[in-house]
Write a structure and sequence with these properties.
The structure is a single chain. The chain is of the alpha/beta class and about 240 residues long. It folds into two domains: about 5-30 and about 160-244, Rossmann fold, CATH 3.40.50; about 35-155, Rossmann fold (3-Layer(aba) Sandwich), CATH 3.40.50. It is built from eleven helices and ten strands. It has helices at about 10-20, 45, 60-70, 85-95, 105-110, 135-140, 160-170, 180-190, 195-200, 210-220, 230-244, and strands spanning about 5, 25-30, 35, 50-55, 80, 120-130, 145-155, 175, 205, 220-225. The strands form two sheets. It has a five-stranded parallel beta sheet with strand order 2-1-8-9-10, sandwiched between helices. Strands 3-7-6-4-5 form a five-stranded mixed beta sheet. Helix 6 (about 135-140) links the parallel strand 6 (about 120-130) and strand 7. Helix 3 (about 60-70) packs parallel to helix 4 (about 85-95). It is elongated. Pathway: Porphyrin-containing compound metabolism; protoporphyrin-IX biosynthesis; coproporphyrinogen-III from 5-aminolevulinate: step 3/4.
Length: about 240
């Protein structure tokens, strides 16, 4: 298959390499760039106080870990949680075992038994600039003291949507691997209105029911939900559809 990979460049390259190993011919077009967050300097203050750390994405783990290495600090011996398997895998790569839900959404994380009794606990959420606040609001309602740290920031590169769409069509693009609602929205904004019916007819692989619902509302008709946002999960979902 000829899937479109829209993740930030470093992640896109890793996913594309795995897809090629499975016989696919991916096209890479990073729709998002990530840089170190403006609140990383607060980690020496926030981490020692935390009882629980929650990472909402791979970027949150990686940028935090890089900052800790640069400043000679270490991850404390506390409880760690990740919203999805990809983030849990990122924690594992830096030597931390993090709990993650089978349902890779904020709702799935909040349903974990370990996060029900958090009254008086200090919770640090590692995330990008902005994003959903469901986790913080819910844990605060359970009595937790919640702090955010913007570990990374998102930037959108300037792209020529007309030219890119023409290139994708000429290349025979047949599928899309979109790992967040934000990336889905960016893709929809990029493709010219007159080409949206073509886009909606591509196979779309997403990491969660929430993104699937957004995609269906936008007009996509061939949607597959992967078992999370990891490269392995996305590739496995594409492999299953290839065999149908």
């Amino acid at each position: 298959m000829i899937p479109l990979v829209v993740r930030p460049a470093a992640q896109a390259a890793e996913l594309a390499a795995l897809l090629r190993q499975h016989g696919h011919a991916p096209l890479c077009c990073p729709l998002l760039e990530t840089v170190a967050g403006s609140e990383l300097h607060r980690l020496p203050e926030l981490l020692p106080q935390a009882d629980i750390v929650i990472a909402v994405s791979v970027h949150a783990v990686n940028f935090t870990h890089h900052f800790l290495l640069q400043t000679g600090q270490t991850w404390p011996n506390i409880d760690y949680f990740a919203v999805g398997q990809a983030s849990a895998d990122a924690f594992s790569e830096v030597g931390i075992q993090a709990l993650s839900p089978d349902d890779p959404r904020s709702e799935g994380l909040l349903a974990l038994p370990s996060l029900q009794q958090v009254n008086g606990k200090q919770v640090l959420i590692l995330r990008g600039n902005g994003g959903r606040d469901l986790i913080a609001r819910t844990l605060a309602s359970r009595g937790a003291l919640v702090h955010y740290c913007a570990a990374y920031e998102r930037h959108y590169p300037a792209l020529d949507g007309d030219a890119l769409t023409c290139h994708w069509q000429a290349a025979g693009l047949d599928s899309l691997l979109v790992t967040s609602g934000e990336l889905l929205q960016r893709l929809l904004e990029l493709v010219p209105d007159q080409q949206l019916p073509w886009l909606h007819d591509r196979l779309l692989v997403v990491p969660s029911p929430r993104v699937a619902e957004m995609a269906a509302a936008a007009g996509f008709t061939h949607i597959t939900i992967a078992q999370g946002a990891s490269n392995q999960a996305l590739t496995a979902a594409l492999e299953l559809r290839k065999m149908e």
